[in-house]
Amino acid sequence: MTLYRGTVLDTPDDPFTGGRLRAESDAGLVVRDGTITARGPYAVVRADHPDEEVVDLRAGVLLPGFVDTHVHLPQVRVIGALGMSLLEWLKHCALPEEVRLADPAYAGGVVTDFLAGLIDAGTTSALVFGSHFAGAVDALFEQAAGLGLRITSGLVLSDRLLPPELLTTPERAYDESARLARRWHDRGRSRYAVTPRFSYSCSDEVLDACGAVVKDVPDVWVTAHVNENHAEIAQVSGLFDGRSYVETYERHGLVGRRTVLAHNVHPTDGELHVLAAHDASVAHCPSSNAALASGLFPLRRHVEHGVRVALGTDVGAGTGFSLLKEGLQAYFAQQLLLDDGFALTSTHLLHLAASAGADALGLADQVGDLSVGKQLDAVWVRPAGGTPLDVGLRHAASAEDALAKVFALGTPADIAGVWVGGDRIKPAPPSSPRPDN
Ligand SMILES: [Zn+2]
């Protein structure tokens, strides 16, 4: 057992329904075999556990591990292209890189870079848009399992309007997805997600194959893109005889509690109603929405319709792996919507970056906050002395104020420790293998 001592901030109660930030300035967390078994004021917990090793994290704050609900494995090396809209960026930037993952050696290097980016940013659970190549998806699951990360991912499927190397057939889509799902779903911390890229690049036949995998492999997840950009939405409507974007998935049984659709910047009220009725989730990716000029996310309408919302970085259209930055960008987007925006507090941002993601991914019984019974998936924000964040934390007026400063100023460089299931993965343990490429 180990006793962790520090300032702990988390959101066990949803702030969108009245929950408040839980803040303990000198807390003790007892962790046994990765699970938090006791929590309370340090002095009380210490008295009950006088012999345990103490890890002193009193400088800075300890937060739950972050949950990224939308991030693309193949795009880590193309982060940062600016000046394009969605369909231009895909054509000139993302898709040429995605073709390169056909080479297993190249894919292995990308997986290494990608997972290092997640860990560095404090992301301990992620729903990952995999690759169009099964070998790269295997490599992702293998390396992630070695590092202990909680990864849900799958083979990306398309059969039209992309470079020919990225296209599949309905039969192959079914066979390869079902094989990967049976190999990886619910194995350790890995789970499988059926992943049609977006209806733009998927015929009804491929979407039907996706629905067949969902039927045949129990409890797999589904992820795709929806309603990101006006030009894309118009083309999807044309390709599907005027059906709504959400309906293109729904009619194949792809919208349910284990579905996470990325973006949804321009939904109709009818689509929001369908998403809520099916208990599906939306991954809000504000940096990407800004970078590609997709638009400002209608969070208020999602909340009013009762649609689950969490955060995604959407690397590589998103500009980095940090859920702190995504939280801040989400806040900015709502501010820019003026009266139509949702007034987000720092407590909302922490919820969106951790507990809402855990809920969207069906992991809320294991992670998302630092309650007794949960896994120790945690991020220690401890900025270097004298930096603006360090100064801000030392002079914060309240726990909420300190948390706002973490979102406003925090970067991966300020994250001094990351734990998943009680194992410290940042800094990397000395025995951790690090492939060279
Ligand atoms: Zn995406």
Topology:
Layout: E1 2-10, E2 22-32, E3 35-41, H1 42-48, E4 53-64, E5 66-72, H2 86-100, H3 104-120, E6 123-129, H4 134-147, E7 150-154, E8 156-157, H5 170-184, E9 190-196, H6 204-216, E10 221-226, H7 230-239, H8 245-250, E11 259-263, H9 269-277, E12 281-284, H10 286-291, H11 299-305, E13 308-311, H12 323-336, H13 346-353, H14 355-360, E14 378-381, H15 388-394, H16 399-409, E15 415-420, E16 423-426
Parallel strand pairs: 1-4, 5-6, 6-7, 7-9, 8-9, 9-10, 10-11, 11-12, 12-13
Antiparallel strand pairs: 1-2, 2-3, 4-14, 14-15, 15-16
Helix pairs in contact: 3-4, 4-5, 5-6, 12-13, 12-16, 13-16, 15-16
Residues 70, 72, 129, 225, 262, 314 line the site of zinc ion.
What are the key terms here?
437 residues; alpha/beta; binds zinc ion
User: Please, what is the average pLDDT?
Assistant: 97
**Beta-strand share of residues:** 15-25%
What is the multimeric organization of the chains shown? single chain
Largest sheet: 9 strands, parallel
Number of helices: 16
Q: Helicity level, as a percent range?
A: 25-40%
Unreliable residue runs: none
Q: What compounds are bound to the protein?
A: zinc ion
Gyration radius (Cα, Å) is 21 Å
Shape: globular
CA distance, first residue to last residue: 37 Å
- Helical/strand content category: alpha/beta
β-strand number: 16
